[in-house]
């Protein structure tokens, strides 16, 4: 079996996408929700924020609340002594209208 580093995320933008001219990239964050029921039978949801980087594409027209599908790879980076992951997107698709 071949190793593979691929991720697909579908969710809503946490804030407007930001274009950075040097080096040319766009950054944004996608929120995903996982519903659950706790031991007491109460419903809840866990929200996760996924930071995304898109190289050599300007997708800065994406705005907070837009529903998107992101396909790419995950990379673990050390920032300020903390390990964090980023999704490096190969494809970003805007879905539906909010």
Architecture overview:
The protein is mostly beta strands. The chain has a single domain (7-95), classed as Nucleic acid-binding proteins (OB fold (Dihydrolipoamide Acetyltransferase, E2P)), CATH 2.40.50.140. 0% of the residues lie in helices and 66% in strands. It contains no helices and six strands. It has a five-stranded mixed β-barrel. Strand 2 (18-21) and strand 3 (24-37) form a beta hairpin.
Question: Approximately how much beta-strand content do the residues carry?
Answer: over 45%
Number of strands: 6
Distance between the termini: 40 Å
**Adjacency order of strands in the biggest sheet:** 1-3-4-6-5
CATH class wording: Mainly Beta
Mean pLDDT: 89
CATH topology: OB fold (Dihydrolipoamide Acetyltransferase, E2P)
Rg (C-alpha, Å) = 15 Å
Question: What are the segments in which pLDDT stays under 50 over at least 5 consecutive residues?
Answer: none
The coarse silhouette is: globular
CATH architecture descriptor name: Beta Barrel
Percent range of helical residues: under 10%
- The SSE order reads EEEEEE
Fourth-level CATH superfamily:
Nucleic acid-binding proteins
Strand-pairing-aware structural class = mainly beta
Main β-sheet: number of strands, strand sense, barrel status?
5 strands, mixed, barrel
Supply the number of structural domains.
1
**What is the helix tally?**
0
């Amino acid at each position: 079996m071949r190793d593979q580093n691929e991720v697909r995320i579908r969710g809503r933008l946490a804030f407007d996408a930001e274009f950075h001219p040097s080096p040319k990239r766009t950054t944004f964050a996608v929120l995903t929700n996982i519903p659950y029921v706790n031991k007491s039978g109460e419903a809840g949801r866990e929200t996760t924020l996924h930071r995304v980087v898109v190289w050599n594409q300007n997708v800065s027209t994406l705005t907070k609340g837009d529903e998107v599908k992101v396909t790419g790879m995950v990379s673990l980076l050390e920032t300020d002594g903390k390990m964090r992951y980023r999704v490096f997107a190969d494809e970003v698709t805007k879905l539906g209208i909010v």
